[in-house]
Specification:
flat, 43 strands, 1 helix, 586 residues, mainly beta
Length: 586
């Protein structure tokens, strides 16, 4: 057996090619190959965002091997001269374009998109406050529900939960693989959505201003192409002033009224319909949807597609025998009234009642109002539903506002109802609407403190003692935005005006909250149960007499903001009361 031989190397001996340089060379070659492979792998992935680019920005992906977009979820790649999102298992996967919008920017953002696989879910994300999450951003995309394709739109809130602002049913098949062009126009605090050049929804309020824009998909492989971002043509939007404008206040915005769904009941007798009767005798006849069973209560038919809040739901009808027609809404499912709300005539025909059905189907009334006798004339009954409350109108006249919802639902179902009446429903309309209370204040000088007179659309208080004069407006609410134009007198420098809200009674300010300003200061606070005002804060002002200034309050369930002439004075002032009446103070 050959003996084991050990070789001892002299540390002073010079390295030879075989013993040192050859192994080192091979190691270096190996490292180069590994790094080259890693580089090629990384270069094949979409690169992350670089410095923001200017407008206009256009990209057709025809000459790119990779794209410098900030990726938030999904598997993005350049395929066949398009940007493709390949994953079909994730929701709202985004690729943000390196273009940054400033607050107040007016622009148009468009992209073509084609379904390659999965369920059609391509869309746009815009006014994103960050590119590392969907939090605080707006989104509009396609969505398949059952056998129907919808365009849904809304925003991801501060908690990242999606808050729908509306949806539009499309005539496009859910598996349609043709190219469609989706666009959004952002201008003056609102946005408009376009599909293939046609405006589908307009005047939708923005919750977030400025930020990033990008592409998004959900459970679908989508090819995006011909992306375009450009300043909105012929815009007249001006940058917001950093100080209160010493000029006439801006014209109040008109109520949002973007059509989401409309049915004029032109269905042929016995024809197919998405209206599903639960009880009663329902049929289409002469361009109306009729319920003809006279004896009985709560005959209901429910539309089998969901709607989203906020919305306004209006029903036009004629009661040919008896009275008891109305509508149901905020239904959690399309097969039961349980958990939903009802607004309808009562059997006498001169009262509108409202309330909700509990989980067991028992009706719980929330209020009623006397109205002119219904007779057999045509009437329009409507509800405007916000996140947590609703308002009721009859023939355009507001009956009540700020009624709390039994339960908040982003998606819910609507329906028609009839009790002790034969009724023909002629039309329903569902519009995406802000819960805005508009119209003249309903003042009653006989129950006010101070001397109030009304001339046209102007209300004047003329007493000058150093005390608060208050008059109710006839409005009540829980969460709302309200504004009033206040003109300060020249001969009384300490005089001021403002608003009181969450009052205990129509003209009873305590307990309640008050915001008032004069030429030198705006201050806010609350009245205690004894009617003593307790100030909570103030900000100095420098205003002109004989000028009109718009005071706006944005009231939520636990706080409110104060704005004068579009300049935010203070925000998130805490409150404890949940609802109440609204008044004017001088």
């Amino acid at each position: 057996m050959e003996a084991l031989r050990l070789r001892v190397i002299d540390p002073m001996q010079k390295p030879t090619l075989r013993s040192f340089w050859l192994p080192v060379g091979l190691a270096m070659v190996t490292l180069v190959v590994l790094n080259l492979g890693l580089y090629l792998r990384l270069s094949s992935l979409p690169a992350q965002a670089s410095e923001p680019l200017g407008l206009p920005y256009r990209e057709d992906f025809a000459t790119l091997d990779s794209v410098s977009y900030k990726i938030f979820g999904g598997d993005w790649d350049i395929r066949d001269e398009t940007l493709v999102q390949l994953s079909t298992s994730g929701f709202d996967l985004a690729a943000f374009v390196p273009v940054e919008m400033a607050p107040g920017d007016s622009y148009e953002f468009e992209a073509s998109m084609q379904l390659l696989g999965g369920n059609m879910g391509g869309g746009l994300i815009f006014n994103a406050q960050q590119t590392t999450s969907r939090q605080q951003s707006h989104m509009a995309r396609f969505n398949v529900d059952g056998a129907q394709l919808w365009l849904i739109y809304g925003y991801f809130g501060d908690d990242s939960n999606f808050m729908g602002q509306g949806s539009v049913a499309l005539s496009i098949a859910p598996d349609d693989a043709t190219v469609h062009r989706l666009g959004v126009q952002v201008d003056a605090g609102r946005y408009t959505l376009l599909l293939d050049g046609e405006a589908l929804a307009e005047g939708i309020p923005l919750s977030y201003e400025g930020g990033a824009v990008g592409l998004i998909s959900a459970t679908s492989q989508v090819a995006f192409d011909d992306l375009s971002i450009a300043p909105l043509a012929d815009t007249s939007v001006e940058a917001a002033s950093d100080t209160i404008a010493k000029a006439a206040p801006p014209t109040p915005a008109a109520p949002i009224d973007s059509m989401v769904f409309n049915d004029e009941f032109e269905n042929p007798a016995g024809g197919a319909s998405l209206w599903q009767p639960l009880s009663g005798t329902w049929a289409f006849a002469d361009g109306t949807y009729q319920q003809t069973q006279l004896g009985g209560f709560d005959f209901t038919s429910i539309y089998q597609q969901p709607v989203q809040t906020p919305m306004t739901y209006s029903v036009t009808f004629s009661q040919t025998e008896g009275a008891g027609a109305g509508l149901v809404f905020n239904l959690p499912q399309p097969t039961l009234r349980n958990g939903g709300h009802l607004v309808r005539y009562v059997e006498s025909g001169d009262v509108i009642t409202w309330g909700y059905y509990d989980e067991d189907g028992r009706f719980n009334g929330q209020g009623s109002a006397e109205v002119p006798p219904a007779g057999t004339s045509e009437h329009t009954l409507s509800v405007t539903v916000s996140e947590s409350t609703y308002a009721v109108r009859l023939d355009g006249t507001r009956l009540i506002a700020g009624i709390p919802l039994n339960e908040t639902r982003t998606n819910s179902y609507i329906g028609l109802t009839a009790s002790q009446t034969v009724v023909a429903f002629d039309e329903i309309r569902v519009t995406a609407a802000e819960d805005m209370i508009t119209g003249d204040a309903n003042i009653n000088p006989a129950v006010a403190s101070g001397t109030w007179t009304q001339t046209g659309d102007t209300i004047i208080q003329t007493d000058t003692e150093l005390t608060d004069y208050i008059i109710g407006t006839g409005l009540a609410g829980e969460a709302f935005t309200i504004s009033v134009d206040v003109t300060l007198p020249e001969d009384a420098p300490d005089a001021g005006g403002g608003l009181v809200f969450h009052m205990a009674g129509r003209d009873e300010p305590h307990p309640g909250y008050m915001v008032r300003f004069d030429a030198e200061e705006i201050f806010w606070g609350e009245y205690d149960v004894a009617g003593v005002f307790d100030g909570a804060g103030s900000v100095p002002l420098d205003l002109d007499s004989e000028e009109a200034y718009t005071l706006q309050l944005d009231v939520r369930d636990a706080s409110y903001d104060i704005t004068i002439n579009e300049t935010r004075i203070v925000e998130d002032i805490p409150i404890a009361l949940e609802n109440g009446w609204i008044g004017l103070v001088s």
